[in-house]
Every structure is written in C-alpha cells, then in structure tokens.
Amino acid sequence: MEIEVKTKQKQYTVMLERGLLQKASSLIGRHGHVYLVSEDGVPAAFRNTLQQQYPEAAMYVFPHGEQSKNLTTWQQILKDMLEHDLGRKDTVIALGGGVTGDMAGFAAAAYMRGIPYINIPTTSLAMIDSSIGGKTAVDFNGVKNSIGAFWQPDLVLVDPDLLAALPVRHLHNGLVEAVKEGLTFDPQLFAIFEHDDYLDHIDEIIARCLQIKRDVVEQDEREGGIRKLLNFGHTYGHALESYFGLNGYYHGECVGMGMMMIMNNPELKRRLQAVLERMNCPVSCTYDPEAVYQLLCHDKKADHDHVTIVQVDEIGKGHLEDWPLPKLKERLYHE
C-alpha cells in the first residue's frame, strides 16, 4: 500500500507493507552518501539488516528513551554528521521509534539548513503517528517538544513485521494514539478497539491512521487549524508525561489519561475507559495538581491565559475549544 502525502514543503510517499526493511535500499534508491541514525532499543538484527544494505554508511546509535531527546544528543548527531563530511545532497535515514525520528529529522532540518531524511519507524507509536507530518523536536528545560522544526521526510517505510519485537506494553502505548484518531476522526477505527480483537487488525489500524494523518497534514501542515485535533488528550497528557519523567508512564498512556481528564461526555468517557482497560492502559493516576498545572502553562498550545483543547462529544467528530487556564487547573483538582 502506498499513500502519497502532498504538503507545501514537500511531496513524499508512505509505503506500508510487511518485509520492507529487507529491501529498504532498493526502495530508497538514493545517490550520494547515506547517514544512519538509530537507538540501542532497536533490535540489533534490524540495525544490521539496514547497515548491510549501506556498508559504507556511518550509523549513529544513541541510548534509547525520552532521556536522549535533548539538545545534547542532537548536537552529538550533528557533530558526527560533520565529521563524516555529509553534504547538502546526502540523506539521513532514521530507524527507530518516535524519539529516533525526532532526533534524526531535527538534525536533518538544521544541517546545512536542511538535507533529505527518510523515516523507517519500528514502533506502533511511530508508525501510527509520528513518522509522517514533519514534526521534529527535542525536550528542553523539562518541557516536552519545546524546540524543533517542521521538516517533512522524503520517504516513509512502514513495516508491520517490525512490531513482533515490540514488548506488549510498548505496542499498546502506540495503539492509544489510534484510539485517539478513532475518537476524533473515524468511528469505524474506534469500533475495532471497542468490539473486535484489535490485535488481529494491526495492518488495518496503521493504514487508517496513516490516511487520517495524511488528510489532516495536507490541509494544515503547520498546525494552525484542523491538525490541532490530533492533540486530543495531549494537553494534560504532555504535562503528566513531563511530571512523571523518565521512570513514569509512556507517552500513549499519558495521552489516554489526558483524554479521560478532558472529555465531558460521560457515556463516551465510560466507553473510552473500557477500551483503555481492555488494552491494560491506565485511566487515571495520582499527581500533584499544582505541579502539573505549572507544566500546562508551558504547553505549546497555550496562548498566555488560555489553551486550545480538543473535545469529543460524538465519536469521529472532534472539535476545538478555548479553555482559560483556571478551567484547566480546576479540572486537575476534581479528577
């Protein structure tokens, strides 16, 4: 399956097919030098499969996890790119989850004022959400994704076979983003999680999410309108993620709790809770409301005294609302 993404910055193809990693170089077909970026949480067999296709390419491997998503790691990648004499026509290839895509994409966006990069996601979260759309960023001063750039990939290769190596908790972490897209855009997608054995529909789930993301990004590349709907659950979710830090909850788990916190419709909230519990994902947690509120105030969606949040009153129809910060704070104390 091929999905064409057409943005003002770039037009590119997203390929979804099992076994793509084995033939990545023939699909990429790049001239010039290639530079590989990965992280040590990616199985060595995956890294070796890609490296063998580019025996002359350097590969920078950083420690896995959100703790590496910072300016220090970003600078180290850029320094290594310079040391390997990459030029403006050379290509960066990312192999890994969302952190890898962010780090490689942001490095490619900055290097020589922008060079091509290709994304090969290895996690459900990256396949479903972060591998397309051009958002690249690092965490800074305790605030998630606060420094970055919009830099579209040149090609995305999505190989669901790679998910076989993913721990179950990580798989579900990414699938929460698919639940979110079902709630905001696609009732049939949400129904898969609510009524079917969703693990038997992984390829369909990824395809639906990629098509939703494509349609949204084409309309709103830089998140000025409809693309904000993809942030359902992220206002509270990002704050919780920053609050708990490296040893707490995963991104998708925080988004799930964020959706539960923001949703007004009690019946939809009950149905969402049932889905999250079915996926063994948390629906609530204990936190310091004041500390989480301070993190909310630094949210990228905050505009001085209010934040644009996403609300869902009917499955498949997300909409935007402006909430004053005191309203967001009040809910923290009543959850």
Automatic annotation (TrEMBL):
One of its GO terms (biological process) is aromatic amino acid family biosynthetic process. Pathway: Metabolic intermediate biosynthesis; chorismate biosynthesis; chorismate from D-erythrose 4-phosphate and phosphoenolpyruvate: step 2/7. Keywords: Amino-acid biosynthesis, Aromatic amino acid biosynthesis, Cobalt, Cytoplasm, Lyase, Metal-binding, NAD, Nucleotide-binding, Zinc. GO terms for molecular function: 3-dehydroquinate synthase activity; metal ion binding; nucleotide binding. It is found in: Cytoplasm. Residues 174-302 form the 3-dehydroquinate synthase C-terminal domain. It holds the Pfam family DHQ_synthase. Its EC number is 4.2.3.4. Its cofactor is Zn(2+); NAD(+); Co(2+). InterPro entries: Dehydroquinate_synthase (IPR050071), DHQ_synth_AroB (IPR016037), DHQ_synth_fam (IPR030963), DHQS/DOIS_N (IPR030960), DHQS_C (IPR056179). Residues 60-172 form the 3-dehydroquinate synthase N-terminal domain. It catalyses: 7-phospho-2-dehydro-3-deoxy-D-arabino-heptonate = 3-dehydroquinate + phosphate. Its main location: cytoplasm. GO terms for cellular component: cytoplasm. Belongs to the sugar phosphate cyclases superfamily. Dehydroquinate synthase family. This is 3-dehydroquinate synthase. It comes from Grylomicrobium aquisgranensis. The gene is aroB.
